[in-house]
């Protein structure tokens, strides 16, 4: 073995020793965070504490800078460690905010998103029942004892299911978790004279917990009667964002409808062009690889879900046509060689984004780093 090989092997041995120490320290840290989870669950303290997280990252960043260590590296490592920390706390269970809530009934509780809420309510100690389409003949007794009914069925079935809930107790909370809000909320308030709230979980069915997840809340009637439910979401780690039903539906036309339709269109174009995906990936920049991953992710899921979202409101067609017209407008500039016109429009959009453009540039760097690691 040469002198170089000996020195290299010694360095590798040192690295291996340090790595083993890091793994042991991570295990010890997880033991402590599990204890934190137990304490939080006893008093109903939310698992996610943004102030604590920000303070810790700032402190660690200063420490890294003082010893000439990469601050982004330290932040990246500890964000990943904190995600595991939240997971370890999640495993300790949650405080039940309202033990006297009565039976929690999830209509469509065997569906993908319904299962998420069934699991969370069950793990928190609530009595949970599920109603599926074949159960309706035997649901009177279940619904009579319900303290909360959540409608978790496809969009096209939501109003029909709501119409069957006229005999709920006046004290029962009626909620839905569909991705449109105005029509279901109106339908619920028309059929039920008790507490009503519209909810839209802004996450997919693949989540195992609600830490750092957003739930949009559209108030209906008697909000004081369902405040405990919103508090329970907070204990689970979710962020409640309150808007009107109209504001929600207008925003979703951009956040969901436009994004999903554009993604479906691009995927359809790739298929029609019969591109070689492996070749595209081999020659992709990290940002395109990430974009392609997001396109592929959509096509790995239920097409009915995305069809329901896109077809849910005729006004969505008007929005998509405006998008198509603007696409053609920019394409015309390219087709006619009007480069200056294209640059002018680009600059107009950049000015409209303002400081957010630079913020998004910085924010996307970490995502691109992760995309590069997967290559």
From TrEMBL:
The pathway entry for this protein reads as: Amino-acid biosynthesis; L-tyrosine biosynthesis; (4-hydroxyphenyl)pyruvate from prephenate (NAD(+) route): step 1/1; Metabolic intermediate biosynthesis; prephenate biosynthesis; prephenate from chorismate: step 1/1
Per UniProt, the keywords (alphabetical) are: Amino-acid biosynthesis, Aromatic amino acid biosynthesis, Cytoplasm, Isomerase, NAD, Oxidoreductase, Tyrosine biosynthesis
Q: Name one GO molecular function term.
A: chorismate mutase activity
Q: Which Gene3D superfamilies does the UniProt entry name for this protein?
A: 6-phosphogluconate dehydrogenase C-terminal like domain, Chorismate mutase, NAD(P)-binding Rossmann-like Domain
Give every Chorismate mutase domain span.
2-93
What residues does the Prephenate/arogenate dehydrogenase domain cover? 102-364
Give the InterPro entries listed for this entry.
6-PGluconate_DH-like_C_sf, Chor_mut/prephenate_DH_T, Chorismate_II_sf, CM_dom_sf, CM_II_prokaryot, NAD(P)-bd_dom_sf, PDH_C, PDH_N
* Compartments where located: Cytoplasm
UniProt keyword Transport present: no
Check the record and name the Pfam families matching this protein: CM_2, PDH_C, PDH_N
The identity of this protein, by name, is T-protein
Organism of provenance: Thalassotalea fonticola
- Give the encoding gene's name: tyrA
């Amino acid at each position: 073995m040469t002198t170089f090989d000996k020195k290299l092997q010694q360095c590798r041995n040192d690295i291996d020793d340090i790595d083993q120490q890091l793994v042991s320290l991570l295990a010890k840290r997880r033991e402590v965070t599990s204890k934190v989870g137990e304490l939080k669950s006893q008093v109903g303290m939310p698992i996610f504490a943004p102030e604590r997280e920000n303070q810790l990252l700032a402190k660690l960043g200063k420490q890294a800078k003082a010893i000439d260590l990469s601050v982004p590296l330290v932040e990246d490592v500890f964000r990943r460690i904190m995600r595991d920390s939240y997971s370890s706390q999640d495993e300790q269970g949650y405080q039940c905010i309202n033990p006297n809530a009565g039976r929690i009934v999830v209509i469509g509780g065997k569906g993908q998103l319904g299962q998420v809420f069934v699991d969370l309510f069950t793990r928190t100690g609530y009595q949970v029942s599920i109603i599926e389409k074949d159960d309706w003949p035997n649901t009177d007794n279940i619904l009579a004892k319900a303290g909360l009914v959540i409608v978790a069925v496809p969009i096209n079935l939501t109003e029909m299911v709501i119409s069957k809930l006229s005999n709920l107790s006046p004290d029962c909370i009626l909620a839905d978790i569909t991705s449109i809000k105005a029509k279901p909320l109106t339908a619920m308030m028309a059929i039920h004279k008790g507490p009503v709230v519209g909810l839209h979980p802004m996450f997919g069915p693949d989540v195992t917990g609600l830490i750092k997840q957003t739930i949009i809340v559209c108030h209906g009637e008697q909000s004081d009667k369902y405040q405990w439910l919103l508090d329970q979401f907070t204990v689970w780690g979710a962020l409640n964002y309150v808007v009107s039903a109209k504001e929600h539906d207008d925003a979703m036309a951009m956040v969901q409808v436009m994004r999903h339709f554009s993604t479906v269109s691009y995927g359809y174009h790739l298929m029609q062009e019969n591109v070689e995906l492996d070749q595209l990936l081999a020659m992709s920049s990290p940002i395109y690889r990430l974009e392609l991953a997001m396109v592929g992710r959509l096509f790995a899921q239920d097409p009915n879900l995305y069809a329901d979202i896109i077809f849910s409101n005729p006004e969505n067609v008007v929005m998509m046509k405006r998008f198509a017209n603007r696409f053609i407008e920019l394409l015309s500039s390219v087709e006619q060689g009007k480069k200056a016109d294209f640059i002018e429009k680009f600059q107009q959009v950049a000015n409209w984004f303002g400081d957010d453009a630079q913020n998004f540039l910085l924010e996307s760097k970490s995502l691109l780093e992760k995309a590069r690691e997967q290559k």
